[in-house]
Specification:
257 residues, TIM Barrel, 10 helices, 12 strands
Length: 257
């Protein structure tokens, strides 16, 4: 049985950790380095750092911030936000990132996925898909989702299932799949979305958006997720990564301990 990963997410603005609902109404959630080291100590398998204002404000991710975190961190680190070119990716990898997460730039220029995968490997290339409900087809009762870009502020009209397949064919090694509708709501992951994407691609999927309880994470794994990502429940101390892993293990989920 494959080991399932637990990944705290740190949304970053101006070097500080922030948290909001559907990417808006951001509140301060602490010092980035302190939070990173705390989650590592609690048993996090990886960390994801996303500069939530880099794309919206058309500015580059702060390489110095990543270097400061990596100087004290030993677990894998995925970094995203403001990555527009292969040079942006190179700078972040050289600063200490293990993987690069792409969303807006990849949607605007899909060949960037192949460029990064060819130079640095599929294992370094993560595609962040922020998915929002569009409509329900009354004929087959299926749900459609469209891709959101620019930190959740723009609807693209691009079908996320079709986009997931395209990113995998271009060299994506992993998909970070966020339900825009569920983000920050603590209403649970969108398991229908997870099932749809996991059936469409054969690369690992990280579930994101809506986690509040261990059962939500169990549901995500059963829906096809290879890893689960959460922010708010870790930031406010609702549960630690270690306690979560204990509960998941008791439920038969294989985790690294």
């Amino acid at each position: 049985m494959l080991t399932r990963r637990i990944i705290p997410c740190l949304d970053v603005r101006g070097g500080r950790v922030v948290k909001g609902v559907r990417f808006e109404d951001l509140r301060d959630a602490g010092d980035l380095v302190e939070r990173s080291l705390l989650y590592q100590a609690h048993g996090a398998d990886e960390l994801v750092l996303l500069d939530v204002s880099a794309t919206k404000e058309a500015r580059a991710t702060q390489v110095e911030t990543i270097a400061a975190v990596r100087a004290q961190l030993s677990i894998p680190l995925t970094v995203g936000g403001g990555v527009r070119t292969i040079d942006d990716a190179r700078a972040l990898l050289e600063a200490g990132a293990d993987k690069i997460s792409l969303n807006t730039a990849a949607a605007e220029r899909p060949t960037l996925i192949r460029e990064i995968a060819d130079r640095y490997g599929r294992q370094c290339t993560v595609i962040a898909i922020d998915a929002a409900h569009t409509e329900v087809d009354v004929h087959d009762e299926s749900t459609a989702w469209e891709l959101m870009t620019h930190a959740g502020t723009r609807r693209t009209g691009l079908d996320v299932i079709r986009w997931a397949r395209e990113t995998a064919s271009l060299g994506a090694g992993e998909i970070l799949l966020t339900s825009w509708d569920r983000d920050g709501t603590r209403s649970g992951y969108d398991t229908a979305l997870l099932r749809a994407i996991s059936a469409a691609v054969d690369i690992p999927i990280i579930a994101s958006g809506g986690a509040a309880t261990p059962q939500h994470m169990i549901d995500a794994f059963q829906a096809g997720a290879d890893a689960v990502l959460a922010a708010g429940i870790f930031h406010d101390g609702s549960i630690t990564v270690g306690a979560l892993k204990d509960t998941l293990a008791q439920s038969g989920i294989e985790v690294r301990r």
